[in-house]
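This section describes the prediction task in plain terms. A model, or a person checking by hand, is given the sequence of a single protein chain and must write out its three-dimensional structure as a string of tokens. No templates, partner chains or ligands are provided. The sample shown here is typical of the held-out split.
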Amino acid sequence: MYTLTTSGILKKGEQVIALDDSTPEYQAFLEWLREGNGPEIIDVPVLPRIVVSPWQLRKALNRLGMRQAIEAAVSASDDIEVKDGWEFATQFESDNSLILAMRTAFGMSEEQMYAVFQLAETL
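The expected answer:
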């Protein structure tokens, strides 16, 4: 069963599905839609977007003791876009699909990840 939040987050169970035609997960969702199914729509309050620089985000992750785990996950990824995004992005948005996927991979709630961005914007 798929759910779609009013803030535009697509999930299958607890897994966040990137809205990207190139991923098998999204292709499976599209096939599921073609079969006549529809996602459950969940009304979720939208947290305001926070935009931080890579330096701000890395400093926040350092303070929280999370930097090494993130670096290891990016390094272990087979997704070149994940690696390029981490290395070359000029800013990170709290509502970006990559950030949402990382949040899920690390078992963080939306509020926990948002708190990382709130800290980052103060640094």
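For orientation: The chain is about 50% helix and 15% strand.
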